[in-house]
Amino acid sequence: MMEKVKGTTGADGPIEAQRREVRIGALGLVGTLGLPPLPRALVVFAHGSGSSRLSPRNRQVAEALTQRHMATLLFDLLLPEESEDRANVFDIPLLADRLAAALEWVDDVAELRGLPVGLFGASTGAAAALVAASLLGARIGAIVSRGGRPDLAGEALATVTAPTLLIVGGDDTQVIELNRAALARLGGEKAMVLVPGATHLFSEPGALAAVTAAAGAWFERHLIHGHGGQPAVEPRRAGG
Q1: Has this prediction a pTM greater than 0.85?
Q2: Do residues 144 and 211 make contact, with C-beta atoms less than 8 angstroms apart?
Q3: In sequence order, which residues have a C-beta less than 8 Å from that of residue 43 and are 6 or more positions away?
Q4: Where are the alpha helices (DSSP H) in the chain?
Q5: Which residues contact 233 (CB under 8 A, 6 or more apart)?
Q6: Alpha-carbon distance 152 to 127, whole Å?
Q7: Which residues in the chain show pLDDT less than 70?
């Protein structure tokens, strides 16, 4: 099934993107593919515990990225029966394997083939994105974590080479400390942004907009401009 979605932030007016429901891999994992005209990169989302491809926060970020000429893929990393077992939600190797399988599927989609790929992870999905990136190496061009648990990636942190941005709510105290510890262990280019006044779900006015701005700038710099375009500006500290 395909539908057209009009955004509101394109520089020359809103970009009309297509949104297509897809089935991924042998398991038939359900996903939503967002396709702007002539996409210049692809961002694959890994949702966190208790969430799904229908997460309104991830969908909002995804829609903003399509306005920056990036295709997006949101999909359920677990089958419905698997998600009923809480242990699976925290099975980072399993979730990372599902991400890797999704990227194999991507290679068979004509509109996506050859695009630079970024990963956007939330909560436990951030750890899965980092573990997948440590396994896939140069296949992953950039990573963004929103309110993530990168600490759960463990020893994989040191082998991540993709430029990684950690975005954390300024009032999400415990998660800030976990992210700072993970940041110190990450290999490659890395940065951390605190969104002032934001809690774990970034539900405060303007908080999610700060997330989308920082994530969009990071992906543009490393996926689009890092592959032959003009240099992009570093994402500013949110609220700064």
Answers
A1: yes
A2: no
A3: 62, 65, 70, 71, 72, 73, 117, 118, 119, 120, 219, 223
A4: 56-66, 80-83, 86-89, 92-106, 124-136, 173-185, 207-219
A5: 217, 221
A6: 5
A7: 1-13, 48-54, 227-240
